[in-house]
Write a structure and sequence with these properties.
Chain lengths: 137, 137, 137
Amino acid sequence: MVKQHRLFIATRGRGAIDITAEIAAVLPTVAVDAGIAHIFIRHTSCGLGITENADPAVLRDLETLMKRWAPDGDPAYRHDQEGDDDMAAHARALLTGTSVSVPFAQGRLLLGTWQGIYLFEHRTSAHRREIVVTFLG
Amino acid sequence: MVKQHRLFIATRGRGAIDITAEIAAVLPTVAVDAGIAHIFIRHTSCGLGITENADPAVLRDLETLMKRWAPDGDPAYRHDQEGDDDMAAHARALLTGTSVSVPFAQGRLLLGTWQGIYLFEHRTSAHRREIVVTFLG
Amino acid sequence: MVKQHRLFIATRGRGAIDITAEIAAVLPTVAVDAGIAHIFIRHTSCGLGITENADPAVLRDLETLMKRWAPDGDPAYRHDQEGDDDMAAHARALLTGTSVSVPFAQGRLLLGTWQGIYLFEHRTSAHRREIVVTFLG
């Protein structure tokens, strides 16, 4: 069984958006017991990751750390045509990754209690982001 | 072919545990030639990764670097209810990731000679960690 | 449907090599509509990642940042038998990861316009690197 969906997520500039419900909404419920949900983002200046979904301070603290890992407007950057956040966004995207994958069974994602699937927008301006979700079972 | 298993690993606080043998032990050996082993951890303060399995100094040096990437008890953190290692653990988990996947064929994981699959416990105290292994072939 | 291929890539020391065409060349075109291409590298001192394929300055800037994330010859390292780049290479590999996976459909990888699949050689000397590509559909 393979099912593939396209999702479009509107971001409002830098920050993390919980997309767990959007993924769960397209999860196949018929004729398959178990498998993997593969979520892929078709961009190089935003990313996907799984992190804590209970305390919003976690997302703020991750932002604090990402700013250290890949500072905006670092004088060493040569790729800066689109602004101070341009190269930083590519570096953050490499660190957190372009895809996540989550097992499912009996119509439910097998996430842990405190796990959420997040789209990390790394650009400071709003974007429309395209995601391909592939279910293999 | 889809096979799914739950594994429980007892950690003894911060450190890396080689779980390659546990994954290999549940690898399907009948009626499938090739596929992917997907290993997913259902927590946000520990992670999975693949690294060198020969010299234990590699794991010590990775710990040294992870302490720099996400310092314990950083004064900038707002999420610190569970102690100095709380937010650091979430940040390390985002960096190293929640899942790894490894190809297999003819009943063997196709890891390189020096590759091991590791559970990285990022909390300083011992935990019981749950892993979902899904074989797709 | 499962198809598995071995690819060998010759690197010329530290740097990123675009392997998108090599992956696309072995993509199955018959009897499968959609699925996932899983790309795995069988080494612990190089890695795989997806990043911007248009401006070579992005790759140079990523190298600048990786040098900060995992400095060569750091005095804290204990694993240094093979030189100053030895431990740094393992750390970079853990950060960027050992595999990437990309959805495909109707004979084409569903990469975004600006996405390329890269092998990151983290050692300073040339190596022959082995990749296992598994298509699940």
